[in-house]
Every structure is written in C-alpha cells, then in structure tokens.
C-alpha cells in the first residue's frame, strides 16, 4: 500500500497536461483563480499491479460461420468448427469450451477419438491438429502440415490409432494418431481405379471401413467412382462407376449394402453381391412431370442410413428438393419406412449428424436424435417420437435472433432481481419441445465458490431487449422485452417508415438500467426514449408521450438581455415543450413550404393497452423534426430514480425530463450551457439563407439522410450478422444536411496518424455510448468498415488534437458540440457550497465537463407537485478529447454510489398497512467522512486524459495522459478487490487500469488489435474485474482483468472429459463370427507400421510439436481426471527419461566395444615383440 499526500497549491501548473489551450483546472470561469487553501488528502491505495491479469474466460452464443460438426457418443460431447479457425465444444449446461487455431484457417472436419479425450481437426491450410481434451482449456498436442496435397476428407475408425486422410489428388494417406507421423502405406488414386480409366476420379469425398471387415476400406471419389480397397492385399475388391457426382456414402450396419447421395438429388442403394448397377435408385423429392420426365432436384449433400431394432431403418438426408419452387426453405428429410417427413429450417444446413446408442458401426444403430447445424442455429430433433419434436436448447444460441446493436454488463446485482426476471420470462417461453432430456450431456460442471449475480443486457435491431443471467460463467435467457409494442405498426408502403426508408425504425442504440429501482430506459434509432417500470401485475395503461424540440440554431437562441434573471438558461416555457399525450398527427403538421415540422419519427399508441407483468412502458420521449430536418440521434443518456429525472443529449443540446411529473424541465443548446463561462472563442455565424432554399436542401437530402442512417445501421449489422464477413470496405456517402457536423479547423499542424484498422472509429462522433450508428457528419464524409479511412482519420484526429492543444481554441461557425456523457450525483455546484446537492455532470465532445446544480423538493407531496428547478452552470473543466466517463469518490478513496429509489410495485393491490411513499437511498459524499462537508473527489476521463478533481474547490489533484498515439474508446470507474480503479479500452487494442485517485498505471496489456467496429462499440467494463464485447455477430466474449479470477478460472470452468467405461461390443454369435469374415483379427499396426510400410516421404508432410503437451496438462483440474492426467504426464516423462538412458547406455556399449577392439588389435600387434623392441 502506498500513501499519497498532495498539496493543492500550484499542483495544477506543475502537473503534465495542466497547460492546455484552456483555463487551468481550478478555474470555472475561464480565467485563473486564486489557489485554494492547502489541504492534504490521505488515501490508502490497496490495488497494485499484482492484482491485475488479463485473460479470456468464456464465450457465449452461436459459433459464427460454422463449417463442421462432430459428436462423441460415449462422452456425449459435441464439437463445432468454424470458418475463422474456432472450435466450440459443448456438453451439459455449463460445459462450454472455446478453442482457436493460431493459423485462423477454417476447420474442414472434426474427428473425436471416441472416449479418449482427444479431438482431431483438419483445417483449410492442410494441417491436422490433435487437441487434448483432458484439461479444462484444451491445447494442441501435435500438428501435421501437408505440403504437397490438399486435405478433403478424414476418417478415424473406432478404437483405432490410424487416421485415414483423403486428398484432392485422390490419394489416401494414413496417419498414426499417437505420434502424428505419416505411415509409408499410401493408396494412390491410379492404383485404386482401373488402368483403362481415362479420367481422374476427382478428390476423395468419403472414407469408411466396412462394418463387416475392418480390413476393407471404402473410398468414394467426387466424380462418381467408388472403390473398396483390401488393405491387406493392397488391391481393389470392386469398383463402381456412376454417372452422377457423389456427395456422401453411408453403410448398413451389416456391411452388405451402402447408400450414396448424388448431385442430381438421387439416392442409390448398392449391394456387395452385385456392384455393376445400383440395387435401387430413388428421387425422394423428384416428381414425375406430365411428359414423363423426372423434375430436376438439388443435390443431396449428405445421407445417413441407420437401422433400428424396434422399427424400420431411418434414411436421413439434407437437400434434394426440387427446383420448381423459388425461395423454398432448406429442409432435412427423414424417411422412416414408407413415411417421409420434411423438416423445414430457417437457415441453410451446414452439417447434420445422427446420434446413435452404440459407437460400433457393425451393430444395430438405434438412432435417437439428429443434430442439425445451420448457418445461424443449432437444433436437435428427437427421433424417438413420431412427430419428431425438437429439444429445447439449453445453450444461448439465439443471441443473434435479431442483430445485436448494443450491450450492457452488470456484475454484483441485487440477488432478488434474477429470480423475479426469470419467473416473469418463463411465462412466455415457447412450448412443443421434446419432453426428453437434452442428449448432449457430457462433461462435468459445478458452481464455483467465487460467484455473484451478473446480468447482461443486449439490445437488438428489431427493438427487442434481452436480459441474460450471466452468473458463474454461464448465460441463460431471463426475460425478453419488445419496445416496438409501444408504437403503432406502420402499414407496408405507408406512413413515416416508408417515407423515411428506414428498415429498422425501432433499433436500440443504448440502454440505462437501475437494478435497485428496476427502472429501465431504452434509446432508439428514431430519436426516441422509452422509460419502463417493473411490475409483477398486468395492467391497463395509457402511454404518456412527450415531444421535445431539440434542434437549436445560434440565431434562434434567446440572448441574455431577453432573460436577465437566468443568463445561462432560458425560461422553461420558451424552449421546453409542454407535456401532452401523443395524438395522431394530421398531414397538416408541415410548414407552408412542405417541409416536415414538429412531428416525431414514430407514432405512439394512443389507446388504452393491456400490458403483461414485467417491464411496462411509463413514458415515451421523442425528438421532433424541425423545418424539414430530422432529429439527430441521441448520444448520451442517464437517469436517476432517487431524483426522478432523466437526462439525454445529442449534437444539438441537452434535455432533462422529470418522469415523475411527466414534464420537460430543461431543453437547451450546448452553447447555452456555458453562458458566460464558454472556454472557446466562437466565430460569428453568418446570416442563414432563406428558409425555402434550406428546406429544399433538406428535402433533397432527406431520403439520403435516412437511407444513409439505414445503410449505416445495416452495414453495422452486416458486420455483426452477415456470413460474408470479409474485410472489404463498404463506402457510404454522408448526407449533406444543414445539421451536419464540422469539426474545428486547427491552428497548428501536428498530425498524429493512427493505425489504419482504427480509422473507421474516427468517423464516430461520440465514443462513450453503446450504439452502432454514427451522427451525420460534414458533406461528403465517408464511412468505411472496418478500414480504408486514413484520410477521414487524419482529418478528425488532427482537428481534435490541434484544437484542444492550441493556445487559443477557435471553433468553426458550423461546429456542433455533442453531449457525450451524463451523470447524476450528489456534488457541489459552486465552490462556496458547504453541503452536497443533486447535480448533473455533463461531458461534451470538445473535452468540456460542466456541472449543473439541481433543486429537487425533498417532501413526497411537494416532489409530485412542485417543479424541479435548474441552476446556472457551475464548474467547467477541460480535458483532451471527448469526455467519456464521470466517477465520484469520497476523500478516503471509496466509490460513491448514485442515490436510488427502492423498487415498489405501482400496480400492486392497495395495502393499508403499507405506505405508498417513495423510499430513497442516498450515498452522500459526506456520509462516510468524519468531518461533515469535507468534500469528495470527481474522476473525469476523456479520450486522451484522466483527471481527478477535489470538490468543491474544483482543484485538479492528479492528471494522467492515457495515450498520445491512440484514443480511449471505453472507460469506467469499477470496483475490484474492495477497492476502485479506472479501466480503459483504447482503439489500439490496449486494456489499461489506473489507480484511483493517484492515476498510477497498474496494467497495460495489448489485448487485441482493433480490426472491427463491432468490438469497439460493444466493449463494456463492469465491476469485479470483468468485461465483455461482441467477438463476432453471434458470440459474446467475456474477459477478466482480475488476477484473483484468473487464479480461480480453472475451478469455474467445466470439465470436458470424464472417465467412462467404453461399452462392450455385442456378442456376435458363432454363425455370424464364422461367416462374417475376420474383422476382429485385423492388425493395422502390422500393415501401417514402419516395419511393414516404411517411412513416408519427408517432403509430403511436416510434423509440428504442439504447445499444449506437458505444460498444458499441468493445468488440468484437480480430481480423478486431473490425477490421471498427471499420472500420464509422469509416465510420459519417465518413458522419455528411460529412452534417453537407453540411448546413453547404447552409446556407452558402442564405446566399450570400440575400446575392446582397439585393445585387441594392440595386443596382437605387440604379442611377439621382445621387451627391448618397445
């Protein structure tokens, strides 16, 4: 622990960053003030660098761009490979592991070593990897890189250590799984086919051993050739040549027949007795047309032929539908006897796999389920019931049901909030699922000791909100809220939605939630805000709507002479709209020249509506069109349940709403917030041209604006959702609206160039909020996702860096200063204040922090009747870059929580014994101080800088320049280890933590290169050292920066491998064993070993030792599996040492033999010599 003592006199002038093109830190009015009385601040800081370590914890959601599927029928775990090289391994709920290939190559195929705790992956870079699953974090043990051939198919027989690998050239190689070395045994394509064949058979698309005889390998070539290869005799038993291309092959369990799927939508059944022609050819979905011909069908990509003891065999395949119907949904077909069931899917089928009771391919399979991997979903169908219901998926695979547009993360929530949300959400769950238990139930997972309530909130493009229980590294849906139900549904081709060209008018930009009062606030893309209250009872309600005209122009602002009593603020009635219920707007709500004016983007329902239990809308706030100009997007939001106030802002100004009285108490432009304390010199604005030309200009760019908004949100969604997630940029022309933002020109030329991957972030006007849209910029501005915006980056970077560092900050006449962050709290509005009062802290895009005092009636009755008054702006603080976050500490360094109202159900039945009065919980800055009114510390963080101020003296205690070459995207004051720190995420991928209040760097890790807008706009910190971001359009990645959590991570993760006895094979009986061939006497080692087959060519493949050998196994969890793993490691190490000892012994023996030989030669040479001859 370190004790900091700072004397306030002259501190601001000596600290770095204190000399800026702005007033000193202690100045509120833009001129130097007298230094405050010297005082010492004693803070015992407990956090040190050893408390921090950054690591990934768990990944939730559906694997993005899946490519392959595998299942271990004994361990009952499922593996899914993806195009980006990721592998997700799933077991019972809680067992969810993510692995990533370092190369990032797509995973073509997966093969479990059944009941061995290992997995083989074949990647698009022609490399095989062996993963060890006997540890909580799987690691690669071996890799084998093919140099001259491309891998197309792999097959690993059950209980075999020899992996068959088919290649694009048509050859089949064999790999020893234990050593991961190629065998010298190779089946060349020209030996597999007849010599008279003139064409190449094509790549290998299928490999499987015969259920009847393991010494026979069935090889399927894409061109239509099928060969059964006798591994012992090294020759072909039979060859089949078919006209149609082959996609897959599946054996009958007796090994006497097999089925093939073809590119013409047909299935062929072949028997080993007669391989000259197929025993049966069927077109399951091919109807006979009037002219007698079969209609053309799509290819059947995969077929599985499974037998059952109690019923007819199952034939399950994907594809094969006819081409006659355009836009038909992908389907999985189940043929059971004479019944054909077609299961239509919402997304294309990537892969499917039938789950069977036995791992042996020569036994009756008895299928019980089929796993279907879709492009954006995973479903499991119950085959034991005639209607084939699906199982209820316990994994959170529907995060992307509608594209995620914002995220919020809350750790250490009130313990009662999760059960109540779950109970409400459970009433709306879908029904019709299979009643059987989820079949993928492998692995073990226990609730760790370091758990606490956690909730993740996701906002979506369709206006829906999802609450997730994220406790103990799991994710379970609690409750879903649809914000679109508040508004009238626009008719297709009519209404405002059609005029605006907006596809997702209800898309969520940001959310604000108070878990204690259960008040929830949503900001939407159509410049609307919805405030919700939670109730356990349904109710009939009339939705109250407020309309705010937040489109201020300098020439429209009331001058101080017109409002002498309050020079900083106008009268509430002059600019603030009066509250009223939303009514249908007539077409006459336009200006005489035809431009829209004073109408919102959406229409609120004006009838009484019945709302179910849960979150119920209490107030809707909408920004209005002004003179044909659409409302600007809302960039910041904060609410406080104790005050009953809600504040929001955009690039035009700030508004404060009293949601208890349903009134607007403040609506003001950003420029008017300063009054006489404006730190910038603003140039005089030239007179505006006539309204007609402006309106025409607006209307001309109107469709462009909203189509641009649509493009921006859709482009952001594409970067979140589209499968073609390549890195090609999508350029979009900015609209030329008169409300476009122009950043100030600089006075000095000192460009600072950032890496190109972060260039697209600089097109974002405001960085601290969780939303996926940009404000409208100047004419001709382009947005490129995610790169290729160097010139745009330079312009914004230079304008910000130069304007804020120049000695005289001059602002262009078209500048719009956006409100970037808001925070309610108890503070001191003036230096002379003796007691803290309710205040609103306002941060702007020009690095200015403004403190606005509020006067709120304390009595319950007075609060509901008397107006809340807003005082003139108090302190004005200056920082470099846009202000991102405010935080408050007491003078002992403890975090001051915002006051809140204890939740009460307004719809609960009247109880005479229970009061209906509001119950407030306050955390006054002076409550923990020995001396009343000692003050508190205010932490202000911007894109470049962090400062700590002492209130009420407004003196700057500490300054830290966070970054010079980049900029901060997210910052938050978080609690960790019973202390507090400032956590920052920079555009260059660095995650940093700073101590509070001294702002000492505690951690700086280059976590990830920022190559995607999605990461930047969904990254958020929370308490207890956790954070998350959207790693792909469908997945949430959680990380921790706490050393304690990293140490306990192994305990909290699930165990993939559990020791299970391999089921015994069925007794085949005397006759079956006598006539069924000698499958059980087949010795692969004798055929494929080095002694018999020799060594493979070194240039064919290269063996690469993995990083997850002994070191990876050392982190295996304690318990039986951990002990077994450690025992295996010890045996391996012992064997290695014994091998080295044997080598040394052999060298010694060779040396001894050489010495003996030389001694014998010397003896013979000297044998007949006399003594005097020596």
Automatic annotation (TrEMBL):
SUPFAM superfamilies: SNARE fusion complex, Tricorn protease domain 2, WD40 repeat-like. The keyword Signal does not apply. Keywords: Cell membrane, Coiled coil, Cytoplasm, Exocytosis, Membrane, Protein transport, Repeat, Transport, WD repeat. Residues 1-37, 561-597, 726-748, 783-812 are annotated as: Disordered. Signal peptide: none annotated. Residues 1109-1169 form the V-SNARE coiled-coil homology domain. GO terms for molecular function: GTPase activator activity; myosin II binding; syntaxin binding. It is a peripheral membrane protein. PROSITE patterns: V_SNARE. Residues 10-37, 800-810 have a biased composition (Low complexity). GO terms for cellular component: plasma membrane; SNARE complex. It holds the Pfam family LLGL. Residues 789-799 have a biased composition (Basic and acidic residues). It comes from the Eukaryota. One of its GO terms (biological process) is protein transport. Residues 737-748 have a biased composition (Polar residues). The keyword Transport applies. It is found in: Cell membrane; Cytoplasm. Its main location: membrane. Belongs to the WD repeat L(2)GL family. This is Syntaxin-binding protein 5-like. It comes from Xiphophorus maculatus (Southern platyfish). The lineage of its organism: Eukaryota, Metazoa, Chordata, Craniata, Vertebrata.
């Amino acid at each position: 622990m370190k004790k900091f003592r700072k004397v306030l006199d002259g501190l601001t002038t000596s600290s770095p960053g204190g000399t800026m093109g702005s007033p000193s830190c202690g100045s509120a009015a833009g001129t130097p003030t007298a230094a405050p009385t010297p005082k010492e601040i004693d803070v015992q800081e407990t956090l040190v660098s050893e408390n921090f370590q950054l690591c990934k914890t768990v990944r939730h959601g559906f694997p993005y761009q899946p490519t392959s599927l595998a299942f271990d029928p004994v361990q009952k775990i499922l593996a899914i490979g993806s195009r980006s090289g990721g592998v997700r391994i799933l077991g019972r709920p809680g067992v969810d592991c993510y692995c990533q290939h370092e190369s990032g190559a797509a995973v073509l195929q997966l093969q479990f070593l059944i009941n061995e705790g290992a997995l083989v992956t074949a990647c698009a870079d022609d490399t095989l990897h062996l993963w060890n699953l006997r540890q909580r974090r799987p690691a690669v043990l071996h890799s084998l890189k093919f140099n001259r051939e491309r891998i197309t198919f792999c097959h690993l027989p059950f209980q075999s250590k020899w992996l068959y690998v088919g290649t694009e050239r048509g050859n089949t190689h064999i790999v020893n799984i234990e050593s991961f070395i190629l065998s010298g045994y190779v089946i060349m394509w020209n030996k597999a086919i007849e010599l008279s064949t003139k064409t190449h058979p094509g790549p290998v698309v299928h490999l499987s051993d015969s259920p009847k005889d393991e010494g026979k390998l069935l090889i399927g070539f894409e061109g239509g050739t099928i060969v059964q290869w006798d591994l012992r005799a090294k020759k072909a038993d039979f060859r089949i040549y078919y006209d149609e291309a082959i996609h897959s092959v599946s054996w009958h369990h007796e090994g006497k027949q097999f089925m093939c799927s073809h590119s013409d939508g047909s299935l062929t059944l072949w028997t080993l007795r007669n391989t000259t022609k197929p025993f049966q050819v069927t077109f399951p979905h091919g109807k006979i047309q009037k002219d007698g011909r079969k209609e053309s069908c799509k290819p059947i990509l995969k077929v599985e032929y499974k037998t059952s003891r109690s019923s007819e065999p199952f034939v399950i395949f994907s594809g094969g539908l006819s081409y006659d119907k355009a836009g038909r949904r992908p389907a999985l077909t189940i043929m059971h006897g004479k019944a054909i069931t077609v299961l239509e899917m919402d997304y294309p089928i990537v892969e499917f796999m039938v789950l069977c009771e036995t791992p042996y391919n020569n036994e009756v399979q008895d299928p019980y389920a089929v796993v279907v991997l879709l492009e954006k979903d995973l479903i499991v169908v119950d085959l034991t019931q005639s209607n084939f219901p699906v199982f209820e998926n316990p994994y959170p695979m529907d995060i992307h049901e509608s594209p995620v547009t914002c995220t919020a993360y809350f750790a250490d929530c009130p313990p009662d909030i999760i059960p109540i949300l779950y109970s409400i959400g459970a009433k709306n769950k879908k029904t019709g699922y299979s009643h059987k238990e989820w079949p993928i139930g492998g692995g073990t997972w226990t609730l760790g000791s370091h758990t606490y309530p956690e909730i993740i909130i996701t906002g979506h493009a369709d206006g829906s909100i999802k609450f997730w229980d994220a406790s103990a590294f799991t994710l379970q849906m609690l409750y879903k809220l649809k914000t679109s139900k508040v508004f009238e549904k626009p008719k297709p081709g009519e209404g405002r939605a059609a005029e605006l060209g907006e596809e997702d008018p209800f898309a969520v930009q940001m959310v604000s939630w108070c878990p204690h009062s259960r008040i929830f606030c949503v900001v939407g893309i159509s410049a609307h805000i919805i405030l919700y209250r939670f109730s356990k009872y349904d109710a009939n309600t009339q939705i109250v709507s407020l309309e705010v005209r937040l489109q201020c122009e300098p020439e429209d602002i009331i001058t101080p002479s017109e409002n002498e009593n309050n020079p900083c603020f106008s009268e509430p009635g002059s600019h603030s709209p009066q509250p009223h219920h939303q009514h249908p707007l007539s077409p006459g709500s336009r200006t005489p020249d035809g431009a829209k004016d004073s109408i919102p983007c959406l229409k609120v329902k004006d009838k009484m509506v019945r709302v179910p239990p849960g979150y119920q809308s209490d107030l809707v706030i909408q920004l209005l069109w002004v003179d044909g100009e659409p409302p600007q997007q809302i960039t910041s939001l904060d609410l406080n349940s104790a005050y009953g106030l809600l504040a929001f802002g955009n690039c035009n100004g700030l508004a404060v709403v009293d949601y208890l009285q349903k009134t607007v108490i403040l609506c003001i432009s950003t420029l008017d917030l300063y009054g006489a304390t404006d730190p910038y010199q603003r140039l005089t604005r030239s007179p505006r041209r006539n309204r007609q030309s402006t309106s025409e200009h607006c209307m001309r760019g109107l469709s462009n604006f909203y189509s641009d908004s649509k493009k921006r949100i859709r482009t952001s969604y594409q970067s979140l959702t589209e499968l073609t997630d390549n890195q090609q940029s999508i350029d979009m022309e900015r609209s030329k609206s008169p409300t476009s933002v122009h950043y100030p020109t600089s006075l000095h030329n000192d460009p600072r160039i950032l890496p190109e991957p972060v260039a697209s972030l600089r097109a974002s006007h405001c960085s601290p909020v969780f939303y996926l849209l940009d404000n409208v910029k100047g004419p001709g501005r382009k947005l490129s996702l995610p790169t290729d915006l160097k010139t745009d980056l330079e312009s914004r970077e230079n304008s910000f860096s130069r304007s804020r560092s120049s000695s005289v900050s001059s602002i262009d006449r078209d500048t719009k200063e956006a409100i970037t962050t808001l925070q309610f709290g108890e503070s001191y509005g003036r230096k002379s204040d003796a007691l803290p009062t309710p205040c609103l802290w306002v941060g702007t895009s020009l690095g200015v922090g403004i403190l606005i005092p509020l006067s709120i009636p304390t009595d319950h009755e007075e609060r509901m009747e008397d107006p809340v008054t807003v005082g003139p702006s108090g302190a004005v603080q200056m920082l470099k870059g846009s202000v991102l976050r405010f935080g408050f500490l007491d003078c002992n360094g403890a975090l001051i929580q915002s006051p809140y109202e204890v939740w009460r159900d307004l719809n609960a039945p009247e109880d005479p014994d229970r009061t209906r009065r509001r119950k407030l919980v306050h955390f006054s800055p002076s409550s923990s101080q020995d001396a009343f009114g000692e003050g508190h510390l205010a932490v202000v963080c911007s894109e470049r800088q962090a400062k700590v101020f002492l209130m009420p003296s407004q003196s700057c205690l500490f300054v830290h320049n966070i970054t010079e070459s980049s900029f901060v995207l997210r910052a938050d004051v978080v609690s960790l280890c019973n202390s507090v720190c400032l956590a920052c995420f920079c555009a260059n991928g660095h995650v940093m933590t700073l101590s509070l209040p001294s702002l000492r760097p505690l951690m700086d890790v280059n976590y990830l290169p920022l190559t995607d807008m999605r990461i930047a706009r969904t990254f958020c910190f929370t308490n207890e050292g956790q954070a998350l971001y959207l790693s792909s359009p469908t997945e949430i990645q959680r990380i921790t920066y706490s050393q304690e959590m990293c140490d306990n991570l192994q305990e909290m993760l699930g165990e993939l491998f559990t020791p299970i006895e391999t089921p015994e094979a069925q007794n085949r009986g005397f006759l079956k064993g006598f006539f069924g061939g000698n499958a059980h006497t087949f010795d692969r080692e004798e055929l494929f070993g080095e002694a018999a087959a020799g060594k493979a060519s070194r240039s064919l493949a290269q063996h690469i030792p993995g990083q997850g050998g002994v070191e990876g196994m050392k982190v295996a969890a304690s318990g039986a599996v951990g002990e077994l793993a450690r025992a295996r490691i010890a045996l391996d190490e012992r064997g290695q040492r014994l091998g080295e000892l044997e080598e040394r012994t052999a060298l010694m023996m060779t040396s001894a033999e050489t010495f003996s030989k030389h001694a014998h030669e010397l003896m013979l040479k000297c044998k007949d010599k006399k003594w005097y001859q020596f």
